[in-house]
From TrEMBL:
Residues 1-24 form the signal peptide. Residues 172-270 form the Sulfide dehydrogenase [flavocytochrome c] flavoprotein chain central domain. It comes from the Bacteria. InterPro entries: FAD/NAD-bd_sf (IPR036188), FAD/NAD-binding_dom (IPR023753), FAD/NAD-linked_Rdtase_dimer_sf (IPR016156), FCSD_central (IPR049386), FlavoCytC_S_DH_flav-bd (IPR015323), FlavoCytC_S_DH_flav-bd_sf (IPR037092), SQRD (IPR052541). One of its GO terms (molecular function) is flavin adenine dinucleotide binding. Residues 33-137 form the FAD/NAD(P)-binding domain. Keywords: FAD, Flavoprotein, Signal. This is NAD(P)/FAD-dependent oxidoreductase. Residues 374-427 form the Flavocytochrome c sulphide dehydrogenase flavin-binding domain.
Amino acid sequence: MQRRDFLRYSLFSAALLFPLSNFARFQKSMQPKIVICGGGYAGLSVAHYLKELNNYLDITIIEKNRRFVSCPFSNAYLGEVQDITLSSLTFSYKDAIKKNKCRFINEEIYEINRDKKEVYTKYQNISYDILIMAVGIDYNYEALFNNEKTIKEVMSKAPAGLKPPFEHEQLKGMIETFTKGNFIITVPNGSYKCPPAPYERACMIAHYFQTHGIEGKVIILDPREQPAAKPKQFLEVFNTLYKNTIEYHGLTNLKDINFKIKEVYVESFDKKNFDYVDKTVPFEQANIIPPNKANELIKQAKLELNDHGFAKLKPPTFQSSIDDDVYILGDAQGEYPFPKSAQMANSCALNVANEIVSRLYNLPYSLKENMPGNICYSLVSDTKAVSIMHTYTYDKKPTVSSFVSAIDEGTALSAKNWYEGLTAELFK
């Protein structure tokens, strides 16, 4: 099966049945303005698919970063595998905008007024008819620490590494200057960006240690009993390829951290006494990944959030639960049990594009009959990877079926082809 072929079955083509002349007349009479907040995989993908469905749409992307830097394959960059560099992870927004003929505003959004249907940056106000929020995640450090000083120290000394590029560059420096001791990675509770990321990162750092003869250990502190993604496969890799380099500590909750004496304080489940006990773990470097929540712009726009801080939608759509003219796409949504991955963002972008074009033509479109799909690759060494594929059906709610690949060189090659294919689709 070729990359993402299994996702293409969900492409809704009813709008394409209209003659192009009808398309043009419709657009001249309506001229809907579509504003996309965020130029990550979700934002660029929905712009791309909207233009594929209707080249006449008036689309504006607002993005604060000057260049696109990919999170997928960033762990390979940390581990020095597959010839991945920061340069190979970086793309020009000019290429995406030129390809899809969209407006691009390279400014930071500081306010969204849904009553006036305007987005405000420092220098201009942008009006919209339809708003797509593809703004991603923020970190919820307050769920881990109640001390503002500790939070600031963690942010500066133990970056989470889920937001490129600066956090990844800092992690890279931490790895390259590491000489001995423990490199701690904490896994957040609940939903977070890219479920396999902490475990893949552990493998890549361990690979770096082994390649460079560093006498260090990667210690994973996980509140779950087993890894959140591909558990059997990751545990197998930890116990074979990295038997003397990775320690996996399940049922372990981070409680505090002391950078002065370099210790983390945890509570870990003692199976003998069937209770949690307090422990300390020394460290040399730490990658503290806090719980995630929707980007602060979702809250600022006064859109409804669930108890975990992610945006609520109106099932079975991607519309906000309280505003039909606002669509929420990518990692910020909390309505559906979809992995917060680049491929899922791309697949859901196809749904959102079809939802919007169908709406403009007053045609039916339902997520129930057009479920997205996902595939997620994780490198475990310089030559091998493992993948998981998710397919969904929708009855009263989405249900998932999954298939996990073998850990082999063929999957690593597929991972590289997937990455090159997705970025080519958006930028080339």
